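hey m, so remember when u said the tokens were messed up on ur end? i reran from scratch. heres the input so u can diff it against urs
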Amino acid sequence: MASFFAAVPLAAPVVVFKITADFKEDPNPKKVNLGVGAYRTDEGTPWVLPVVRKVEKCLANNDSLNHEYIPILGIPEFTKSSCETVLGKDNPAIAEGRVGGVQCLGGTGALRLGAEFLHAWYNGTNNSSTPVYVSAPTWGNHNGVFGGAGFTDIRSYRYWDPTKLGLDLQGLLEDLENAPEFSIIVLHACAHNPTGTDPTPEEWKKIAEVMKKKSLFPFFDSAYQGFASGNLDKDAWAVRYFVSQGFELFCAQSFSKNFGLYNERVGNLCIVAKDSDNVKRIRSQMEKIIRTIWSNPPAQGARIVTTTLNDPDLFAEWTGNVKTMADRILLMRSQLREKLEKLGTPGTWNHITQQIGMFSFTGLNPSQVDYMAKKKHIYLMSNGRINMCGLTTSNLDYVAESIKEAVTASQCQ
């Protein structure tokens, strides 16, 4: 008898993890991994935030803690503090009781929970055909998350202009103007992945104006608060502005990057609704969804975040840690641009410093990326996205020289 699974095809590997696997297998001593989506120190190693180490030790020595189930919706102090972090403690929506949080399995889990709820309950029922718009390009998992939740009409709105290597604001606004009423719009709160290009406050105001006119629903993905500017409040500006304009919205928060808690899967779905009764009913339905997926969230990572956010001294230390990471990224940006320009690399490279956050859309095309991997042992996404944290003072010259070589070689073909 043949296997019940004989017809199952082999799925293609997840691209970013395939890049890491290829990098690890490469024996070349000069190899560089610019694909990994995690912070690295100038020595190229993972960094456990000092404040996280400190809190972990405190939790380990706290005999009052146990491993009992925590509530399905998460640790209340965690969800409250998380919402305050993205919205600001003094946000009127919080004072009015219109905000609620749900602890999730990382930012991905928050996106998926929000998508599952919207598919079931947004603007009525039977929402499979409700259009969901994501930016072009966007994080590779957005389409899969909403498709997996049952949405069948996933579209893109213009975002990146490859000619000017920046935001295509006009195209973005036109696509939102043409979107059907009540469409769901996925927005990157800051440090857009993969381009590193964010709208300015004035541009965000124009986006919000169109979305309000067309009754479009904002679903923010906030994976990098603190990584864009080093300032938590500045990086949350767009979300707070939309709330101030009276939008109901969801905001998926991840603490993987800004706490370095990648494997703890600490996330929160922040819900902003019209009133407290709406929040209560929304969370009640999300509780039912969670019960059938992960049932109860894990505690350790959430406890680390909660303890840090609610202690003034620890909070101050954490914001300092976040700024350390952001400043290193900004330094690598400026130094990479400087070296590329000094080398006389064909093209313009000012977009490297105009972009922000962990990732940069270099402008390299797939053939140039292939050249970098095969000839120079430098690994990055085929769309030219690099993780600025993969650059170090020891490999910066080599990477810049390799980029020049790849660009020059392609022009000679």
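this time it looks ok to me. The first strand starts at residue 32 and ends at 33. if urs says something different then somethings off w ur setup not the seq
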